[in-house]
Design a protein that fits this description.
Shape of chain A: globular
CATH superfamily of the largest domain in chain A: Type I PLP-dependent aspartate aminotransferase-like (Major domain)
Mean pLDDT of chain A: 96
Largest interface: A-B, 65 and 64 residues
Strand content of chain A: 15-25%
CATH class of the largest domain in chain A: Alpha Beta
Number of domains of chain A: 2
Number of helices of chain A: 11
Low-confidence stretches of chain A: none
Order of helices and strands of chain A: HHHEHEHEHEEEHEEEEEHHEEEHEHE
CATH topology of the largest domain in chain A: Aspartate Aminotransferase, domain 2
Structural class of chain A: alpha+beta
Distance between the termini of chain A: 37 Å
Oligomer: homodimer
């Protein structure tokens, strides 16, 4: 009689499939799918019936109000997507053509693109393996070796360019060491613009991510914890900056009964009311989504505890993560099995993916300045995101 | 017994109010409001139920397919708005940092902004009072005086910059003399990118506007003849260019099962499926909207025929206009009454507006090169847009 193979005797990829299957229901599971079980249909119906589907309307105002309330930011401004939000936030933070902006090498390409759109250069720095976000200690060492404080701000000695801002990103929803970074911004007179695209519902020592810097941004793309179809927002505690953001994304048109005067080169970046209607319904369910995702993280943590040299990423101490994308971390010693694991899981309908290609490895950003990046080089070999939808727990 | 004052004895502003009232129902009338009497609620409901509300899905594909079919373009690519569509179309047409692009001084600011976003300079040229669009004769004279043909294309002798493209805009839906302009693009090796934001459903000699140049763009903003909340599209007969457009607006991410490789600095500019669902329903009603707007133009033409020195703008010979925004043209001799007319009409709830501030008069574009602009200077004193919604006829 043949004995069932015990999990620990299987190959690692098979073990991982078995562990995922012990948490998830049968069938295929995407990495992240949205969940519309609240007032989505109702609000969107109402929005169309009102005929206000475009750039103004009740839902845009309401979405901005509720988002500010939820995050504790004084103001929230809704935009067409998170990339646009970051571009405008960086512009309002004073990033100009020819500047450099410190961004993680481990991020989605939009972080670097937003810098590039302004004619500035992304300057890639390393992340901590504890938070997956920018590492203040590594950054402090790096700035000590390349940065020079001048009356006009900090200058990169090697490139001669001004370093204007720093854009931490809270990877997969886990808050980075934002206080460590804030201390550096004071030392070097840098603006802090938080890319909280992935971390709606995540807190650092009780304060919502995206509310620490001069401006922060969130994303409501279809794969995020809540979605507006496409959408993003700027968070800020600075009322005049919020007004400026709103003005800039509304083609910088001055208020007038009929005249069309634009006092700046503005953008067409407002979130349509139709999308905000969906967003209002989604925000109402965010507390439930957060609870589900936390539960899923716990279940995954339990089952993967049985597999040596593999662990589920958990929130850093003092932080509360939204657990947007659940992350499996392989030990460096088994990192060479990453592609096999990706193959096997995807082949059986369990969608998984590695971390993004590191920014400095993309041909478009290969020439940009960068710090030593040992930690993200290792992380990028070891990260596997696994099915993470709120509906799974 | 007091006699009723006849229309011709009234002041001009009162005559115009009376004429508008004879066509429109009681109450307030915005300049343009959308009309959702088709499958809008149904398709959007279905879209949310499918959970595909974001950057991919049935409705995006379907909207692109139907839009191509309607316009006769080989391909249509849906974007987040018309400004983004123009920016990407210009980029694909080869506009680079430091180039000049010929654009009408009489246009919405987005036309000039799209050029500016690429680091290029808008160069403002005059429009014809017959079409309200770029005047090929005036442009030919201007190019003769400033343009120099070189092996690398046309050079502006005065600024030293390359003139790369020309962007005619079909103002208020009326087709401009696109064939006259095409002849110039051949002479001067310029790319033609049509800004057909306002002219969905308008035809020049039987061919849909936006399909003459290398690429054309349309807008589906809330005030347009059909709306997707916010949205736009690129039209082109060049399949590889359409594929490139789709790639560029999808963060230039290469297709791969799990890897994130971006081979260009791309954009996050796709139209969400939610907005495309609304668009599919709107496109179905476009023929009805076109018929209504034509009828409204006829009614307006009739009633304003009774007022001397005032006329309704009608489609240029050989063209079929979508009559997106109905336009009252004052004779130059009464242009000084424009503001009074705007005041009086808006005060009684009949929304009217003048033409946009001419681009070269905005502080942001004052320093840009420009041709003599006698025709648009006159037009901008004489144009008044009046209530134009499809639901009015």
């Amino acid at each position: 009689m043949q004995q069932a193979t015990s999990v620990t005797e299987m190959n690692l990829d098979k073990q991982i499939v078995a562990s995922l299957r012990s948490v998830l229901s049968r069938g295929a599971h995407p990495l992240h799918e949205p969940c519309f079980q609240g007032n989505e249909q109702c609000y969107v119906h109402e929005c169309i019936a009102s005929t206000f589907v475009s750039s103004t309307g009740y839902y845009v105002d309401e979405f901005e109000r509720r988002l500010a309330e939820f995050t504790g930011a004084r103001r929230a401004v809704a935009l067409v997507n998170g990339t646009a939000a970051l571009q405008i936030a960086l512009k309002l933070a004073g990033v100009e053509q020819g500047d450099e902006v410190l961004v993680p090498a481990l991020t989605f390409v939009a972080t670097a693109n937003a810098v590039h759109y302004l004619g500035a250069t992304p300057h890639f720095v390393d992340s901590s393996s504890e938070t997956l976000g920018l590492d203040p200690n590594a950054l402090a060492d790096w700035l000590k070796s390349i940065a020079e404080r001048t009356p006009n701000g900090t200058r990169n000695r090697r490139t001669g360019r001004r370093i204007r801002a720093i854009v931490p990103m809270h990877t997969f929803g886990h808050p980075c060491d934002i206080e460590g970074l804030l201390a550096l911004t004071t030392d070097y007179r840098l603006q802090l613009v938080e890319d909280a695209s992935e971390s709606l519902g995540s807190y650092y020592h009780g304060r919502h991510t995206g509310t620490f810097g001069l401006l922060g941004t969130v994303s409501f793309n279809g794969n995020k914890i809540i979605t507006t179809g496409g959408g993003g927002a700027i968070l800020t505690n600075d009322e005049p900056l919020a007004d400026q953001a709103k003005h800039l994304i509304t083609t910088a048109k001055k208020q007038h009964r009929w005249e069309y005067i634009h006092d700046d080169v503005g953008y067409n970046f407002r979130m349509p009311n139709l999308n905000a209607a969906l967003g209002c319904a989604q925000l109402e369910q965010l507390p439930d989504f957060l609870a589900s995702k936390r539960l899923l993280a716990e279940r995954y943590t339990q089952v993967f505890a049985g597999i040596p040299r593999v662990r589920i990423m958990i929130e850093p101490p003092g932080c509360r993560s939204n657990y947007w994308l659940q992350t499996l971390l392989l030990d460096e010693s088994i990192a060479d099995q990453r592609n096999t694991i990706l193959e096997t899981t995807n082949n059986v309908g369990l969608m998984t993916r590695p971390a993004w290609t590191l920014m400095h490895r993309l041909s478009i950003y290969r020439q940009c300045p960068r710090a030593p990046l040992p930690s993200v080089e290792s992380l990028s070999r070891r990260i596997i995101n696994i099915p993470s939808s709120a509906g799974l727990a």
